[in-house]
């Protein structure tokens, strides 16, 4: 009888051990949690280097998967004329940005980066893109309805530098 208990106790121990070594629950990744709870949880987990990196924006020419992962960079900006290739299409931009985003998501905390483009008149860095007047020109049209639809012409970039 005792010979049967030892393997059974071993099995129970193994199951308990497996249950306790499951992936740690990360509140900051749970969309059902409140924003404040998620932020506090994420900030508690971040090292000082990760916090500094998340507040850092670098120019696209200096970006690489290694730099993004090693320094936890939070944002990349394509300044004026900083393009993936001459006459770069929207597809070229996506193909350039995707590896950067994957590198950021592969870090310990999986925080996505923000990609910005200096495009105050529209994305004229993208070949065949729609170009709009500067904001003062858009306002002068007094066509608020149409101005609210300009976003539908965007390329999926996270933000545009407006000077």
From TrEMBL:
<feature type="domain" description="Glycoside hydrolase family 3 N-terminal">
    <location>
        <begin position="47"/>
        <end position="146"/>
    </location>
</feature>
<protein>
    <recommendedName>
        <fullName>Glycoside hydrolase family 3 N-terminal domain-containing protein</fullName>
    </recommendedName>
</protein>
<dbReference type="Pfam" id="PF00933">
    <property type="entry name" value="Glyco_hydro_3"/>
</dbReference>
<dbReference type="InterPro" id="IPR017853">
    <property type="entry name" value="GH"/>
</dbReference>
<dbReference type="GO" id="GO:0009251">
    <property type="term" value="P:glucan catabolic process"/>
</dbReference>
<feature type="signal peptide">
    <location>
        <begin position="1"/>
        <end position="23"/>
    </location>
</feature>
<keyword id="KW-0732">Signal</keyword>
<dbReference type="GO" id="GO:0008422">
    <property type="term" value="F:beta-glucosidase activity"/>
</dbReference>
<dbReference type="InterPro" id="IPR051915">
    <property type="entry name" value="Cellulose_Degrad_GH3"/>
</dbReference>
<keyword id="KW-0378">Hydrolase</keyword>
<dbReference type="InterPro" id="IPR036962">
    <property type="entry name" value="Glyco_hydro_3_N_sf"/>
</dbReference>
<dbReference type="InterPro" id="IPR001764">
    <property type="entry name" value="Glyco_hydro_3_N"/>
</dbReference>
